[in-house]
Amino acid sequence: MSWLTKFRNGALRSLAVAYIFMLALALSGCMTDRSQISSSGLASSTPEGRALAFLTREVPLWSKANNCFSCHNNGDAARALYTASQRSYPVPKHALVETSAWLAKPGQWANNRGNPSLSDKRLARIQFAAALVTAIEAGHVRNPGALVHAAELVAECQDQDGAWRLDVSESIGAPATYGTYLITSMALQTLRAARSDRFHERIQEAERWVRRAPVQNVLEAAAILLALNTSQDPQAHSQRQQCFQLIQQGQSDGGGWGPYLSSPPEPFDSAVVLLALSHGPQNAQVAEQTRRGRNFLLGQQQADGSWTETTRPPGGESYAERLSTTGWAALALLATKPFEH
């Protein structure tokens, strides 16, 4: 056997040994498990990762398919991605680039295309403005003047008593339609975030309303808590205590909440409650409520990372409500991550 043949055989044996070694590493788990990484770059082995991977796929699709921007995809769902980005989750830029460009120009919101019968410009202003707040906090939009402009649009929709309303029925609302209490809470947070003296009176009117509003169900209680989470005056404290009592009474055996004390638990209502609890004072009782509520949400998550839409009445089918439900649920998981055991 020639020296060249021996060399070739030795080289082949070395390659075979290297291949077997690399294969053994992969099988033993020492190499990166690519099955746990989605095409978006988000780890799909965690509930948060699966939710964000789903939203990363869905958020950009609406504007591309419909040539308009929606409150559900580019509002609620995008807000979850901005929050994740702010918390250093690897959200791909392509998932939010068009939404960010849209949110950064509030003057164009009124010219949004779409079916007028299926849209409410007041609701759109408030949901886009809420998303803009988060986009600025996450560094995706760098124009503070856009937020002041958006807050002006939101302030124009405020009623004389300090609240915001979409219809005279003052229905409890749904993930994509909010309802009076939640829309008032979200609008108030936008005016606060604008940090402009021009909204001082508007903020005071809204804060008076949330302190005095009768709280009759779980979703109203959660919305009021979100609005009063930093207020320390006696009236705010009394209102918060009533809200906490309703939330305590409304938690189901499975850990979730429905809109009313007697309602079956729903992902959307549970998510809003968890967000409200996460922004308020923390104690052992709140920690236990949060743990149980988070476990309920985890149990309701679908295989694709989404949550079945919460609709009013229950059991309906709606893409808009599904995207908004998933956005709210993802926000709740991100906010309660420290409570996971």
Question: What would you say this structure looks like, in words?
Answer:
By secondary structure, the chain is an all-alpha fold. It has one domain: Glycosyltransferase, CATH 1.50.10. The chain contains 14 helices and no strands. Helix 2 runs antiparallel to helix 14. The longest helix is centred in the first third of the chain and has 26 residues, at 3-28. The radius of gyration is 24 Å and the shape is globular.
Quickly list its features.
single chain, 341 residues, mainly alpha, Glycosyltransferase, 14 helices, globular, disordered N terminus
* Rounded Rg: 24 Å
- Tell me the CATH topology: Glycosyltransferase
Helix content: 55-70%
Shape: globular
The number of helical runs is: 14
| Range of strand content | under 5%
Level-2 CATH architecture = Alpha/alpha barrel
Low-pLDDT runs of 5+ residues are 1-39
